[in-house]
Design goal:
The structure holds two protein chains of two kinds.
Chain A lengths: L1 H10 L19 H13 L4 H13 L4 H22 L4 H25 L5 E7 L7 H12 L2 E5 L6 H11 L3 E5 L6 H14 L6 E5 L5 H7 L3 E3 L2 H12 L2
Parallel strand pairs in A: 1-2, 1-3, 3-4, 4-5
Helix pairs in contact in A: 2-3, 2-4, 3-5, 4-5, 5-6, 6-10, 7-8
Chain B lengths: L11 E2 L3 H9 L4 H4 E4 L2 E3 L2 E4 L3 E5 L2 H4 L2 E2 L3 E2 L13 E5 L3 E5 L5 E5 L12 E4 L5 H8 L16 H10 L5 E6 L1 H9 L1 H10 L1 H26 L5 E5 L12 H21 L5 E4 L8 H6 L4 E3 L9 H8 L4 E3 L4 H6 L1 H18 L2 E2 L12 H14 L3
Classes of the chains: A alpha/beta, B alpha/beta.
Chain lengths: ~240, ~375
């Protein structure tokens, strides 16, 4: 019996045995089970206390911080996003789940720095000039950071020149432009024109977000994608930065 | 709104002061839209007889009806009010304390951007239970300041009997709108999970407060109140900001209590105002006792034809002309109206209009073109 169980663990690819001092198979949790529990706690919207306990236990059991983040927290966040996209979850669940990840990241972050984990990519983000709304932008930022992107948030009411300068300085993979108001949509066009004039348009993917944005408008101004929500925007970023 | 046979579909719009200013500066004759009072009387004695400008009413001139018409004067805000005031100003922004205790930022008037519109709210009065306990003190339904000083029932009944320029409306802030306004959207919607007891306490108090505060007006005016306008703004393009599950568990019972109270007083038309895609909770909204919705925002995927097909006469509907298409004028404008109006004329229970306030970018010329075409199509 024990032989079969150990064989199963070995054949489980990424799995490795943890809790080496435990005596029976039933007491032992594989690394993948531990990480699955972390992911599940996010998707089932458990308390932050429970998630932090699971994360601490994983770290005590010598699971690497990078694995906790990638195969536990981000896996959970990804599943959360899928449920949001499919209409099973709504903003309440998405934001709460993202806040769980945020709190768990505070526990993991110190050791993550020691391990020098790679970022998924860089995003420069802002609400365009003339618009000071930031709820949607901030939700996207929260999701993108929790997913491992290095986000440079320029805030609200950002001029095309400021976007252009920041693209030059940060060399982001993605430039995210947000606008709630229909009246400020032309600023997205102006920003893209600014990038074209400076020759940096082809160095970065331009992602549009916000209530006023439509697919027709995106095509009209030559942006790379228009997202209806934070999760869809994040999916574009993941696709564009996949190595 | 009652699905009764009518000669013509009503056309309702909501015009804020900024679009009104634009229209005035573009040629709307000021004498046509200015309400002037010539005499001021006190107990039958003439005190003054010079012209006093009371305000501007462009609706009749433009040919439409003000969505919210004449509003029943009950104050459901925090009392004492937070004194709305400017707390800071720079060359580009001004910062305000709002009357509900939030901090907001908006563009300075001189800035060449939309200065009115919606401000950015960056701090909120309720953050946790302790701050909620403090805020509660401002929600005393018995405070005499909630009704006008001259609240004399027969006089008000007469006023509302005589008002003919639109619906007499009782405005209520909904359970979601109340919480999101006090806590900010992110903190409020996540608190359903983080601190459900706090949410329960907030919505329970709001139910009791709403009924107790409105009781006198509702029991006095009864069905002279044409419509309850329940402000929520509880959705984004993807769907409602709180899930149907949370809506059902936390809000639905409280809605039912309030709608039951209104129905008992013969008030039958209860409309929710929410931007965004509320399709996933429309069944629950109907179960709550709400029977109308506006503005059916096209960009969020709302379509008056689909809602009518799915919910029939359970909901009267308002709005849903895509403001972006209407603003283009010409064929785009006519196509948008022609694609929706015939079905709504056939099925009734519809208030024609744009899918939100008239945008500030709308020119007077385009609005007139829209008005001319729409009014030519409204007759049954």
């Amino acid at each position: 019996m024990r032989e079969k169980w150990e064989k199963d663990i070995v054949s489980c690819g990424e799995s490795r045995k943890i809790g080496a001092n435990l005596q029976s198979p039933s007491d032992v949790m594989t690394m993948s089970e531990t990480l699955d529990n972390i992911a599940r706690a996010i998707v089932t919207l458990e308390s932050s206390q429970k998630l932090v306990e699971l994360v601490n236990r994983a770290l005590q059991e010598r699971v690497s911080s990078a694995d906790v983040v990638e195969k536990g927290l981000r896996k959970g966040l990804h599943e959360l996003g899928q449920k949001y996209e499919s209409g099973e979850f709504f903003l309440s669940e998405l934001l709460y789940g993202a806040s769980l990840v945020d709190q768990a990241m505070m526990v993991v972050r110190p050791s993550l720095k020691v391990e020098k984990a790679e970022t998924k990519g860089r995003i420069v983000l802002g609400t365009v000039r003339g618009d000071i709304h930031d709820i949607g932008k901030n939700i996207f930022k929260m999701m993108a950071e929790a997913s491992g992107f290095d986000v440079h948030d320029l805030g609200v009411d950002v001029s095309p020149e400021k976007f252009r300068e920041s693209v030059g300085e940060v060399s982001p993979n993605v430039l995210g432009l947000s606008s709630l108001l229909t009246t400020t949509l032309p600023e997205m066009r102006t920003t893209i024109t600014e990038l074209e004039k400076s020759g940096s348009k082809n160095t970065v993917k331009v992602l549009l977000g916000g209530n006023a944005v439509t697919e027709n408008f995106r095509r009209e101004i030559g942006a790379d994608a228009a997202a209806v929500d934070a999760v869809q925007g994040l999916n574009y970023c993941v696709r564009w930065t996949k190595k | 709104m009652d699905f009764k046979k009518v000669d013509s579909i009503p056309w309702v719009e909501s015009l804020d002061e900024e679009i009104l200013m634009n229209f005035l500066s573009s040629g709307v004759p000021i004498q046509e839209v200015t309400a002037i009072q010539w005499g001021v009387f006190l107990d039958g004695f003439l005190l003054f007889n010079w012209p006093k400008v009371l305000g501007f009413d462009p609706y009749e001139y433009l040919g439409c009806i003000n969505l919210t018409g004449c509003i029943v004067p009950v104050d459901i805000g925090p009392i004492p009010r937070f004194k709305q005031r400017r707390i800071g100003a720079g060359p580009r922004y001004e910062e305000y304390l709002t009357e509900t205790g939030a901090l907001s930022r908006r563009f300075s008037k001189g800035t060449k951007v939309v200065w009115y519109s919606m401000p950015q709210f960056y701090d909120f009065p309720v953050k946790d239970r302790a701050s909620w306990e403090q805020y509660k003190k401002r929600l005393n339904p018995e405070d005499p300041r909630r009704y006008p000083k001259d609240w004399e029932k027969e006089g008000y009944i007469q006023v509302f009997e005589e008002y003919q320029n639109g619906p007499t409306t009782l405005g209520i802030t909904g359970f979601y709108g109340f919480g999101a306004e006090l806590m900010g959207i992110t903190n409020f919607v996540t608190s359903f999970y983080k601190d459900p007891e706090l949410i329960n306490d907030m919505v329970t108090l709001w139910e009791q407060f709403t009924i107790q505060t409105l009781r006198d007006a509702v029991e006095t005016l009864k069905d002279r109140i044409d419509m309850v306008y329940w402000w929520e703004d509880m959705a984004e393009r993807h769907g409602p900001n709180i899930s149907p599950k949370l809506y059902k568990e936390f809000l639905l019972p409280h809605y039912k209590t309030v709608t039951s109270f209104l129905n008992k007083n013969k008030i039958k038309r209860i409309m929710i105002d929410s931007d965004g895609n509320i399709q996933p909770i429309l069944d629950l909204i109907i179960e709550a006792g709400i029977n109308g919705t506006w503005p059916l925002e096209v960009n969020a995927g709302m379509d008056v034809r689909t809602v009518r097909k799915l919910h029939g006469e359970k909901l009267f509907l308002g709005g849903n002309f895509d403001k972006k298409e209407i603003e283009k004028g010409g064929e785009a404008m006519r196509n948008e109206i022609d694609s929706k109006l015939p079905l709504m004329k056939e099925t009734g229970g519809y208030l024609a209009g744009l899918d939100h306030d008239v945008p500030v970018t709308f020119t007077l010329e385009r609005f007139r073109e829209y008005a001319n075409y729409l009014t030519s199509q409204l007759a049954i």
